[in-house]
């Protein structure tokens, strides 16, 4: 979300989309920065909670991720690399804005990249639910908020008069809404995991 929201801020200079969308992107950068700071301060120590749910699990631990990321991207144990990356990322975007920021192709690329990153955020959750045949740990209240938010967003994008919303927002917003709707289908199919646990317990008794 930080990568997408920072890029959306730069996208505004070329697209000049509606001010509420710009304010939303700025608030998102602020909130996600605070959340990253809190997460980095409260990470479990190395070796604790040997599971894939351990946040920021580095490749040097006993239980690394199945597919290590190049340069351990966003899996660093030290705090400074996260801030160094974000500052470097913003610096590169500033340089590109000065050099080619006025070009229509670059402006469109900014929008579609930023909003595609944001729109694909539900995909890991969809895959995990499909793999485990369960929505355990995924709160129904979160899903409901996402779907309600999508409804308001689509109404604003397509039905509000006098707004300037580029097609990048509309297309990526539609894709994200479909992903959230499918998460709702998965929750209806799999439940919160209690059903699978009950079936496993019955199978154990039969055996």
Helix content: 55-70%
Number of helices: 8
Q: Count the beta strands.
A: 0
For the biggest sheet, the summary is: none
What is the general shape? globular
Q: Please write the string of helix (H) and strand (E) elements.
A: HHHHHHHH
Q: Tell me the radius of gyration.
A: 20 Å
- The low-confidence runs, each spanning 5 or more residues with pLDDT under 50, are 59-66
Give the overall pLDDT as a whole number: 85
What share of residues are in beta strands? under 5%
N-to-C span = 47 Å
Structural class: mainly alpha
The total tally of domains equals 2
Describe this structure in words.
The protein is mainly α. It has two domains: 1-102, no CATH class; 120-207. Helices cover 68% and strands 0% of the residues. The protein has helices at residues 2-15, 19-41, 80-100, 104-119, 123-132, 140-159, 167-190, 194-206. Helix 1 runs antiparallel to helix 2 (19-41). It is globular.
